[in-house]
Amino acid sequence: MSLPRPPLPALEPESERFWRACREGRLEISRCRACGWYVHPPRPVCPRCHLAEQAGLRLTTNLVGCAPDDVRIGMPVRVRFEPVSDEIALPLFEPDPTAATSPPPPIPRPVAPAIRPSDAERLERRAIISGVGQSQIGRRLLRTDLDLTCEAALRAIADAGLTPADIDGLACYPGPMGAGAPGFAGPGTPEVQDALGLQLGWHGSGGEGPAQVAPVMLSALAVAAGLCRHVLVYRTVTEATAQGAGGRVGIGAGSRAVSGFAQWVIPFGAMSAANWLALHAVRHMHEFGTKREHMGEIALAGRAHAALNPAAIYREPLT
């Protein structure tokens, strides 16, 4: 049985020239007229001479005609095009047997010094995590995301020695996402505020930032800035219940076309953060000699630490 074709990229003003050129058999990369820097994905400004320096041109695609274990960074490749519609072709790459040698490895760019505020007392030191709470955990509990959120919230508030009347801030990740991924986002802050009867001075949510850590950081800043005093931060996932009847829905599933960031990764089968982060992991292994065993230690430690939680589902040690 053949696998379903991922959604195609949308033809947007900044990207349609690239996709149409691929359909005509050309790999056309935008180039800055001022400094000659190649820019991909296409952007309205050059990141080298207007925003920030870009280490080199990279694009997400598929390497075909080569066993996965034979792939290595720096191997010579050549482009070929796979038509997927009357207007679009996907650029794929295959090993180039005519290339004499591999190019030399790129020289690592210097790491810019971290920008730190001049304030002697960091904002994050003006806030603490005073309580934690957790709802029932399990597969297909047949409870709503709002029900589970309220259960965890009330436990966290009590653990902090507070009452709902003390809560004047609310934050979550990732916030409303529509119907694209049922059970992934959980209830929005207005729903939780109404369910718990909270009187808020500040609230926030969003998908940007370091995932679940982002609302914690935003809440600490809100407290430090005096916008609120006690913030309830939550993350709720009910995918097993919400998607139990039809299986898990991947990013872009059911869409005819994907736009924005997704159009540069989804058409090539890179459907989740696992794929995107793997690119960075392989690069780290290449530049610093990191082994798969080193990566495995992270998973082993995570399972061992999680097993200390009496409510953990997976408790058997990994090897």
Strand order, sheet with most strands = 7-6-8
Strand content: 5-15%
Query: What is the 3D form?
Result: globular
Low-confidence segments, given as residue ranges, are 51-55
**Main structural class:** alpha/beta
Number of domains: 2
Overall average pLDDT: 84
- CATH names the topology of the largest domain as Peroxisomal Thiolase, Chain A, domain 1
> Helix share of residues?
25-40%
Largest sheet: 3 strands, parallel
State the end-to-end CA separation: 33 Å
Rounded to an integer, what's the Rg over CA atoms?
24 Å
Report the CATH C-level class of the largest domain: Alpha Beta
Describe the structure.
By secondary structure, this protein is of the alpha/beta class. The protein folds into two domains: 115 residues, no CATH class; 118 residues, Thiolase/Chalcone synthase (Peroxisomal Thiolase, Chain A, domain 1, 3-Layer(aba) Sandwich), CATH 3.40.47. It has eight helices and nine strands. A three-stranded parallel beta sheet has the order 7-6-8, sandwiched between helices. Strands 1-9 form a two-stranded parallel ribbon. It has a two-stranded antiparallel sheet with strand order 2-3. Strand 2 and strand 3 form a beta hairpin. It is globular, with a radius of gyration of 24 Å. The two termini are 33 Å apart. About 2% of the residues have low confidence.
